[in-house]
Design a protein that fits this description.
Number of helices: 5
Shape: flat
Structural class: mainly alpha
Oligomer: single chain
Distance between the termini: 111 Å
Radius of gyration: 31 Å
Strand content: under 5%
Amino acid sequence: MIHASFSPNLRRSAPSRTKALCAAAFAAFALAGCATMTASAPPLTVDQLVERAKKGESTESLLASLRGSRERFTIAGSEFAKLKERGLPEPVLDELQRREIQAAKEDEWLRNGAFVDPWWRFGYPYGVRYVVLPPRPIPKPKS
């Protein structure tokens, strides 16, 4: 067996092997990322939920499909009564409202500069700013 220090061909090939291994690892990670991406399903609509409820699909399966989707629904308050009349179960309506409230909270969080102060959630001493006011004079009681 020839030692690497005595063979000039083996010495030159070590960096190329390293580059080839790095390239292969990068390709494997890139392809693994592509393999996990699937074709997205068409967006879920409220009308689809109503039709599925009319066909007799269970409330649990409607809730599961609603929770599995990433759709954001904007439903007016008057529409909830109409959806109830059209046959949408109450737990599904509750989930629609919960998702709408959660989306509004996330929008508000982003609008109020959540990225400006990343320490806000840790509380004292990070998120607290003290304001020192001068002492107020004590008024004398009227006699």
